[in-house]
Design goal:
The complex is a heterotrimer of chains A (about 375), B (about 270) and C (about 325). Chain A has about 375 residues and is of the alpha+beta class. Chain A folds into two domains: about 15-95 and about 170-250, 3-Layer(aba) Sandwich (Rossmann fold), CATH 3.40.50.300; about 255-380, RNA polymerase II/Efflux pump adaptor protein, barrel-sandwich hybrid domain (OB fold (Dihydrolipoamide Acetyltransferase, E2P)). Chain A is built from eight helices and 20 strands. In chain A, the strands form four sheets. In chain A, strands 6-7-8-3-9-10 form a six-stranded mixed beta sheet, with helices on both faces. In chain A, strands 13-12-11-14-20 form a five-stranded antiparallel beta sheet, with no helix packed on it. Chain A has a five-stranded antiparallel beta sheet with strand order 15-19-16-17-18, with no helix packed on it. The longest helix of chain A has 18 residues, at about 185-205. Chain A is elongated, with a radius of gyration of 25 Å. Chain B has helices spanning about 10-30, 50-55, 55-90, 95-110, 110-125, 130-155, 160-170, 175-200, 205-210, 220-225, 230-270. Chain B has a single domain (about 30-270), classed as MetI-like (MetI-like fold), CATH 1.10.3720. The chains are: A alpha+beta (about 375), B mainly alpha (about 270), C mainly alpha (about 325). Chains B and C meet through helix 1, helix 3, helix 4, helix 5 and helix 6 of B and helix 1, helix 4, helix 5, helix 6 and helix 8 of C.
Amino acid sequence: MKRPLCPVRRAFSPWDDPGEQPLIEFRNISKRFGSFIAVDNLSLKIFKREFHALLGASGCGKTTLMRMLAGFEEPSEGRIFLEGQDLTGTPAHKRPFNMMFQSYALFPHMSAARNIAFGLEMERLPALEIKKRVWEMLSLVRLEGFAKRKPHQLSGGQRQRVALARSLVKRPKVLLLDEPLAALDKKLRENTQLELMNLQEQMRMTFLIVTHDQEEAMTVADRISVMDKGKILQNATPGEIYEQPASRFVAEFIGDINVLDGQITTKQQRNVRIFSSVLGAHLDVRYSTPAKVGDSAALAVRPEKMRLSLEKPEEPETNAIPGEVWDIAYMGDVSIYHIKVAETQTLRAIVANTSRLVERPITWDDQVWLSWDSDAGVILTR
Amino acid sequence: MMPSKPSWFNLTSLVLGFGFLYLPIVIMIVFSFNESKLVTVWTGFSLKWYAALLSNEQLLEAAWVTLRVGLISATLATVLGTLAALVLVRQGRFVGRTLFSGMIYAPLVLPEVILGLSLLLFFVAVEQSRGFWTITIAHTTVSMCYVAIVVQSRLSGYDRSLEEAAMDLGCPPVRIFFRITLPQIFPGILAGWMLAFTLSLDDLVIASFNSGPGSTTLPMKIYSQVRLGVTPEINAICTMLVVFVTIGVILASLLIKRQRLKRMQEERLAAAHL
Amino acid sequence: MNDPNLSPTSLTRSETVPALRHEPEAPENAPTNPRGTWGRFALICLPYFWLSVFFLIPFVIVARISLSEAAVAIPPYLPVIEWEQGLIGLWEAAQRWSFENYIWLIEDDLYWKAYISSLQIAFISTFLTLLIGFPIAYGMARAPRVWQPTLIMMVILPFWTSFLIRVYAWIGILKIDGLLNQALAFIGMIDEPLVILNTSIAVYIGIIYSYLPFMILPLYSSLEKLDTTLIEAAQDLGCPPLRTFWRVTIPLALPGMVAGCFLVFIPAVGEFIIPDLLGGSSTLMIGKTLWVEFFSNRDWPVSSAVATVLLVLLIVPILMFQRHETRRNEGDT
């Protein structure tokens, strides 16, 4: 069950300020491996103190994009800028970014403390300073008692924290997180997500995370870039991505959604009417879209915005269509009703199980009405 | 396959198989302690053949040559083989890559007579007189390919992101090799060295082609005596060689096993104390 | 002793047997560090240079000398190419190239008989090694888990001990008054001692004995991976044990069987020590012929020609083996 986490609106949106200079800018970046195009003419700006997530399925190019920023890959075309400075040709060991690897990549022959100290030793800092900063980091990740342990003497969660400390200790301009929590179990992962968010606020740093887990991206990020086939499909806040998906791919990738194909019949500013030939019905939507009358478009509604009733609801600005209960998936906190609204179309509605009653008012094979407000829907043209 | 109670058939084939593998060596060892000069009739226990070895100066001289060839060629082969492994695993496409990997693999399968002959003819062509150094070079050339394979399997098995992490933390490439890569592949390099050393210690054919006056190796010495017949003295020297190598290999593997057990134990402990 | 299996990783790890590990694909995303070009150049150059000088050029020389005429001189052959004369010299030399040595190889039946007999002996002993090795590998794979590292260690240990010594150890057993005849006479199985040493039987025994570990290890690694639930599934579907073995176990062990056969066959063809010490004068094998030609007859051009033909003969099985290993490794991943 994927439930959207209520997006927290922070009073932080430098991307809306045209005068703000981005910290990192990818400009028309492409990367090809042989004939395979991993990243396809992509541009992206990341701002100071932002927590940015690159979200996509494996092979979408998100890791390649991050590795190009770190300097492990050279872009085939395009440039990457850091505070306006071109990074092309700067080798990885001279870039002011640090990465936390998916495998953690802790040096197996060095203790936790030596691992954390490694990056500082490369800067040839005085030994005393190194010691001090290593201890600061160890206490930050609560591993003071484990300084002398080798990686294999640490549990998975401890290793993850050493890796985090090692990548933070040099105070990088951007912390790169490559699927950092993939190896942890669910509980630990959720806790660590919150810790990461706190850490980012506390240290006032810029984080870039690569993940395939949409819940993780929604939880931690200020903005998410949804990627597919080497392109960014949508770059927006979690709330916008969920409530105003830019395309069918994004809508279906993030959470569950009902999609009805149709054609726009009337349009008055934001008031749009779509005719669905499958249902043989007109549906009202309030949504700003560039599509014109006569264009084919899809109406998409999230299942939790659907309502079920035995009687036809008579409220204004509500779409209501009849159907039959085809299946009920009981999930504990909610139930998902699959409603057959036409021979070839079922729609899903989520109903919260607010009482402990075993007897449900609506059950299998019931004739029901499925309804939703006109501003619950979204118009998708791509 | 899952462990199961060994059936009679399996047990019998194991006993017979390992008997076949080990009996000849055991017999040879036993008869090296035989008092009689006859190698097939047991007359009593004696260490006299070992005593005779120690006074056989030719044999000791050959052993000394072999040891020196082994140490030098194994060390050279380890350096070259490790570099070759790095090239095979780490370098992308370059001109002549196929030829290069071909040259690494070919000495592993080609008959030794061909390898020995071709190197000899090379040394003759460049008018290099044969002796200690030509054997050493020949052994280095063959052993480095074995080292390359051993180190290569170690290299390709290990997490590349370790090096990226080091680079990411500001480590320049050459320092990465010495601080991160080398400690990681060191067991493989050590194993490669051991392998190169024993290969050199055992080799008869290649050494025979490339030796010159005053550079007779132990296997060559043994071979020339074996052709004259089996003697308890050869049994004794062979026993010493076998025991020497066996102890080395068993010690090494026990060491590896102990380290692995210790490591597993520590990992279990770490996982238990979350 | 051409055994890449000696890999000491297999000293303790059961899964490593592949001998000729196929060449790994050039990493697509090898670091393209512009500053590393110099270091990269030096890194490639050193081993490349060494192998070119001490492996590749010697082969060219062998091919060259095989085309020259024998002479009573030091070195005992006539020059083939006068390098001093440059390209014209090369052309003139090419006209003087003599294929006499190769014609000699064909005309004198000693040589082609030796080639054929080598291939035959290698083929038969490979088959026998498979027959003997299979039950051992099967027994190892079916042995209790705790035994297995020790058993593997015991198979690998002979790799590390001298080939020469292991062959030598058989002389005392096989000779007329040797231990085998003594033992057989003692239990009354024979009256007259068997003549085994200096016959081809002794060569077969020597090859089987020396190369048995090469057969066992790949077989074991195939059999060890075999999931017992497959056998249980076959029996559950009504297949009797022997037919299960034939229909399930054997096909799944096939890659290991093929690898083991190549590993025995290829080196056995060019074997010298075994036919020399155990085969006596009655067994004809090409490795030994080459040795005799070189050391006793001092005919360097002919021995070069013998080596060249042997090389050509072996290229086919070597390439087949390499392809098999590539496929086997791909199947693993």
